[in-house]
Amino acid sequence: MLAAKQELIVRELEEGTGAVIAVAIDNGGLRSGMKIWFADLDQQHGPVAEIRPRGLKAHHVNLTFGNFSGPIIRQIRQASAEDRQLAMALVASIDQAAALSLGEQALEDWTVTDGSFRMDATIRHDVRPDTDEAVSLTCREVIVPMMAAMAELIGYDMVEDDAVDDEPAFEGAIKPSVINRRERNPRNRLLCIRLHGESCAACGLEPRLRYGEIAGGIIEVHHLEPLANVAAPRPYDPATDLLPLCPSCHRAAHTRRPVPWDIEDIRCMLEEHGG
């Protein structure tokens, strides 16, 4: 029963989208489903995803907009080219086996223009759809990319603009730090890993294999072109502009400022010192 999976679904979606998620059981069909939306928007004022079992080993997922979503849709229409590109890449990362449909729109150039926008996907499993394994897979492979795309278009971002300071004079002193918007954006991390995998691009470490599931989230996102060096805002391609790095290699890359070491430089360091 999906009713018993609420905590699991919320955890998967909040980690993947970077937004606070609300859920509710929907008993409107032959089989109970669950509706999912952003907690600061009710079901009538924004995008709502629904997951429902289909057959013996499948889930059907759809995403629609509530009847009073006009303000949010207008906000989405004003999204930057960069946000639109990332949103489209997130949806495109859904496995083709999930049979994704965007109505009459093409996968490579869909847009949200009004409340009739809809996404549908059916994902099949090797186990029953009421198992943790099946629910987690549906969340990660279908619902997270859908909702993460909407979060990107709406503008759910973690931004801090503190200035960089030198090393503190005393141990334990509070030090301001710059946290780059694109580096903190969980959708970038999600898409980077979906495109490049979970292995460090420099040393090859895959934390999930070495430490188990508990360390699966420590891979970080590295910008091949430092955003501080970009003279003007520009759309970027997550496939070519981002790479996963383990925390050690990421820290090593940024020991050179303002331009970090290249990935090949890090590999040479590792070879030279037996890493």
Short recap of the structure:
The protein has helices spanning 6-17, 70-77, 81-92, 132-154, 181-184, 186-196, 207-211, 238-241, 247-253, 263-272, and strands spanning 21-26, 33-38, 47-54, 58-65, 119-124, 220-223, 242-245. The chain is of the alpha+beta class and 275 residues long.
List keywords for this structure.
Yope Regulator, Chain: A, HNH endonuclease, 275 residues, alpha+beta, hydrolase, HNH_nuc, 5-stranded antiparallel sheet, endonuclease activity, single chain, 10 helices, nuclease
Give helix and strand order, one letter per element, not per position.
Answer: HEEEEHHEHHHHEHEHH
Largest sheet: 5 strands, antiparallel
> How much strand content do the residues show?
15-25%
> At the first level of CATH, what is the class of the largest domain?
Alpha Beta
User: What is the count of helical runs?
Assistant: 10
For the biggest β-sheet, the strand order reads 1-2-3-4-5
Protein structure class? alpha+beta
- Based on the structure given, which CATH architecture of the largest domain is correct? 2-Layer Sandwich
- Measured distance between first and last alpha carbons: 48 Å
Number of strands: 7
Portion of residues within helices: 25-40%
Quickly count the domains.
2
Query: How confident is the prediction overall: mean pLDDT?
Result: 85
CATH level 3 topology of the largest domain: Yope Regulator, Chain: A
Poorly predicted regions? 159-181
- Please state the overall shape, judged from the principal axes of the Cα atoms: globular
| Cα Rg | 20 Å
